[in-house]
Amino acid sequence: MCASTPSTVPEAKTEDPAVSILHVAAGILTDPQGRVLIARRPDRAHQGGRWEFPGGKLEPGETSQQGLARELREELGVQVLASEPLIRIRHDYGDRQILLEVRRVTRFTGLPRGREGQPLRWLHPQDMDWRAFPAADRPVIGALRLPDRMLVTGPDPQRPASFLARLEGALQTGVRLVQLRTPGLSGVSHLELATAALELCARYRADLVINPPVDGVPPPPGAGLHLSSQRLRALTNRPLAEGRLVGASCHDARELAQAAVLGLDYALLSPVLATASHPQAVPLGWPRFADLVERALLPVYALGGLEVTAIPIARRHGAQGIAAIRGLWPVDGSDAGLR
Hints:
Blueprint: E1 21-28, E2 36-40, E3 51-52, E4 55-57, H1 64-76, E5 79-92, E6 97-109, E7 120-123, H2 138-145, E8 149-152, H3 160-172, E9 177-181, H4 187-203, E10 207-211, E11 224-227, H5 229-234, E12 246-250, H6 253-261, E13 266-269, H7 285-294, E14 300-303, H8 311-316, E15 321-324
Helix pairs in contact: 3-4
């Protein structure tokens, strides 16, 4: 991403109950190189001339899965064999409101071609400029760039050699997004560990976001930033330029809305289930989690009492995936009792 960020926070729009919502399904088709298919909208259409993910309006009684299969058959001449949810986005364009359900097509047959004369392109998500797309597609591009799990580092940053060895163990399992927490460290010790973790993540082509021990401490160059909910509520600007990941911990609809208004790249929503680390916190449960995520305007990870096996459940409830400490952080003999 390379767009500038507003210097002030605009007022969030509220939906007008008198305005009907256009229900749209869009599909993510990927080639063997990991590129995603996009199509150019006709100049005369709403948002004409912009690139989009292929799909269209659902017909009465259709599910998003059924409607997407029909649209891709009509538009591209492909037969969808299987698809799964990626993200749901509500967006108000002023002259119309849409509910965009985006599904990742996991199996299809046929060679996509623009049957309605629309130009097609295959692009890696990292090469997509969201400004060339309708505004509702910005969080979709974000979701395509993010993995289905985030590791939140656990104990013990005060033993850096052991800590980094365990971080590497997690990276070797396929973790590609890491939130670094360094409780008990500050100043030079925090910076040294953050720098070493960044170098290790770079070796595995993983992204690192820093959850600083003190709000306002900048991450080292090349790392992103993870905000506490308290810091999130206090901000009026995105704290880092586009192109560096910024996310936040959220617990309710207001914080999710603030994260979206600031143009953050993701949010963590917790606690979904009861956790040993915060036994006093009332869990959201999956139904409430899904309700909050449906109105979020950015990718959301489920956090709280979750293991890797919960990723499909989280995805069915609208999540990007899961974030976890105990579920992803390799254990050693000294902290096995924490499990």
